[in-house]
């Protein structure tokens, strides 16, 4: 079983492409099952955020082309369009990539903590949909543990650098005194929660939280003294809002150009600062063409974010070393687990042969055969049966020129140099001439 990570992110695709390739939460159950069934992939999970869409898969035969074709068909794009903006990681590379993503090392904001929660959501969605499986689950658990270790052992999360923090920093540049400003936050997810907390800490004059359900808006807003409204009330309060920051999972825009134009007239063209963190976008791009509107998308936050990353760079280097070691450890454990099935099957086979010889011995004892002879025959019979298949396979491999098989067999059976350098008998011992289970002398002893 091998691993594949296929995806796009803010480095490889603009927001226009990312929103086309995103998966809405309500799409995930169907998408996960279709991905598994239509590509023949045993285990799948999908991570979809504003900055990335990634497929994590466990396959017997790694086949990235089928995944690309499926993603393209699902979103109504061509496979070539997806290939141009996507990246692919396999085996240890996929493990390393998932750990880097979970630790925030591949995020727009280096070390941002939100991505770990989003990866846990992706894991839970796959688990609920029944597409997770033991191999991918094991990888997710190791990924979560590594992300926690990075947070514990490095200082990468010490400074509050995030998309939410960057959005509030930009707002401070437009409105030097946020205490006189009113902020409208659209959505009630984790990102908006962080934005609300940052605005509250900066002493913003008033916060209004708008959400599809009033209850969810209240849960986020009440601890901060915010007003709570539903989405269709936004036009009623828009004119009083100086800062508008939106992050929902809506497939269609929440704010259109017409609504903003009407609000600007009421404000007598007092500036409005807007940040659209959502993918797909919540605010129509045409709003940015209006005078007195400062509209930023997630891609526009790069400059602010870069200025806050320098303090985390040293910690990121230490985190990379931890993840390299974690990847090696996971792959070693994975290879060790691969031997478990073989060992179990071999033990079952050996126990069956043992039971067969034991039954024959018990029958002979019941007939009064000398116990010493019975024991000797049972030992020879069990030895021959255990050696028969390995002997045949080794002889065939040697005839095929697979000389490495002999060296591996010597290591596997711990024969060592002592046994190979020991004096060789001039003739075969009697036991070597015992018949195999098929009634013939073992081929490897015939010298053929």
Number of strands: 10
Uncertain residue ranges: 418-448
Strand content: 5-15%
Number of helices: 18
- End-to-end separation in angstroms reads 38 Å
Strand order of the largest sheet: 7-6-5-8-9-10
Order of helices and strands: EHHEEHHEHHHHEHEHEHEHEEHHHHHH
Radius of gyration (CA) equals: 33 Å
Helix-and-strand structural type: alpha/beta
Describe the sheet with the most strands: 6 strands, parallel
Oligomer category? single chain
Helix fraction, binned, reads 40-55%
Shape: elongated
The whole-number mean of residue pLDDT values reads 87
Structure described in brief:
With 448 residues, the protein is α/β, with parallel strands linked by helices. It is 54% helix and 12% strand. The radius of gyration is 33 Å and the shape is elongated.
Describe this structure in words.
- The chain has 448 residues and is α/β, with parallel strands linked by helices.
- It has helices at residues 15-20, 28-39, 64-74, 79-85, 92-102, 114-129, 134-153, 163-174, 190-201, 214-221, 234-237, 257-266, 302-307, 310-366, 371-399, 403-412, 416-421, 443-446; strands spanning 2-9, 43-48, 52-59, 87-90, 182-186, 206-211, 227-230, 243-246, 272-276, 293-297.
- The strands form two sheets. The protein has a six-stranded parallel beta sheet, with helices on one face. Strands 2-3-1-4 form a four-stranded antiparallel beta sheet, with helices on both faces.
- It is elongated.
- It starts with a strand and ends with a helix.
């Amino acid at each position: 079983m091998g691993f594949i990570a296929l995806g796009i992110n803010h480095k490889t695709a603009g927001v226009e492409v990312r929103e086309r390739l995103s998966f809405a939460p309500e799409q995930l159950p169907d998408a996960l099952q279709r991905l598994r069934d239509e590509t023949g992939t045993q285990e799948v999970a999908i991570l979809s955020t504003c900055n990335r869409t990634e497929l994590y898969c466990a396959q017997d035969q790694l086949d990235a082309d089928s995944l690309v074709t499926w993603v393209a068909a699902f979103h109504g794009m061509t496979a070539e369009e997806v290939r141009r903006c996507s990246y692919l990681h396999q085996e240890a590379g996929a493990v390393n990539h998932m750990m880097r993503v979970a630790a925030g090392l591949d995020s727009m904001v280096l070390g941002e903590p939100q991505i770990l929660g989003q990866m846990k959501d992706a894991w839970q969605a796959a688990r609920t949909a029944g597409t997770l499986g033991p191999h991918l689950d094991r990888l997710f658990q190791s990924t979560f543990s590594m992300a926690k270790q990075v947070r514990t052992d490095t200082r990468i999360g010490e400074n509050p650098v995030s998309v939410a923090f960057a959005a509030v920093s930009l707002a401070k540049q437009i409105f030097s005194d946020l205490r006189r400003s009113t902020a409208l936050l659209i959505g009630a997810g984790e990102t908006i929660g962080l934005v609300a907390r940052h605005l509250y800490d900066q002493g913003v004059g008033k916060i209004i939280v708008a959400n599809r359900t009033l209850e969810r808006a209240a849960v986020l807003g009440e601890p901060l003294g915010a007003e709570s409204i539903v989405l269709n009330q936004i036009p009623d309060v828009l004119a009083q809002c100086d800062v508008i920051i939106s992050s929902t999972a809506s497939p269609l825009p929440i704010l259109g150009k017409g609504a903003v134009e009407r609000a600007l007239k009421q404000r007598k063209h007092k500036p409005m600062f807007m940040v659209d963190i959502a993918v797909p976008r919540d605010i129509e791009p045409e709003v940015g063409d209006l005078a007195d509107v400062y509209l930023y998308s997630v891609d526009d936050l790069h400059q602010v974010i870069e200025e806050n990353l320098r303090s985390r760079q040293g910690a990121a280097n230490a985190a990379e070393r931890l993840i390299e070691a974690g990847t090696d450890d996971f792959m070693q454990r994975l290879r060790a687990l691969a031997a478990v099935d073989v060992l179990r099957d071999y033990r079952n086979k050996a126990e069956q042969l043992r039971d067969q010889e034991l039954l024959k011995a018990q029958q002979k004892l019941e007939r009064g055969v000398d116990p010493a002879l019975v024991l000797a025959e049972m030992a020879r019979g069990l030895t021959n049966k255990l050696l028969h298949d390995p002997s045949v396979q080794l002889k065939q491999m040697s005839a095929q020129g697979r000389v490495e098989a002999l060296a591996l067999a010597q290591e596997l059976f711990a024969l060592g140099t002592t046994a190979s350098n020991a004096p060789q008998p001039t003739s075969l011992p009697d036991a070597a001439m015992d018949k195999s289970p098929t009634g013939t002398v073992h081929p490897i002893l015939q010298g053929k």
